[in-house]
Amino acid sequence: MRFFKETQRFDQWWLHLLNLIVLGISVFSTYKAFATKNLDTPERNILILTFITVLIVLGVVYSIRLTTQIDEKGIHFRFFPFQINYKVILWTDMDKCYTKTYSPIKEFGGWGYRGIGRKKKAYNIRGNKGIQIALKTGNMLLIGTQRPKEAQQTINRYLKEDERI
């Protein structure tokens, strides 16, 4: 395989259920606030502000995407909307690169962008499989994947080509 591309989103069933419950409570509370005859109550304003905040947070959660591409140049990844442009890790900057099974909670404290300011970072959306990259600087990076076999095939192709140079 010459090229690998994968896009992941937060689309787990339990997350949809949780978001639906939160949105339902927020919609019901806001509706009740508008249905009352006293229009200037501070509670009503707080509920409206809470409803708007819930909508914004849900909009951000559902816009999050982790896109990974592997090609002859290296590994490109973007954690949108927090990263607008792709970050690229060149094959020449890597000491090791392989797929692995890991424990998201034990190793990184959960999913998302983890390890800010540390030597060991992770970008993951779901599951427990990822592309482990050991950089020549000593830093470690893990990028989650739902297709580890395909990713490993592409990694093997380019790592072998680099060894021939």
UniProtKB/TrEMBL annotation:
Q: Which UniProt keywords apply?
A: Membrane, Transmembrane, Transmembrane helix
**The organism sits in which domain of life?**
Bacteria
Membrane-spanning intervals of the chain:
12-34, 46-64
Please give the name of this protein: Bacterial Pleckstrin homology domain-containing protein
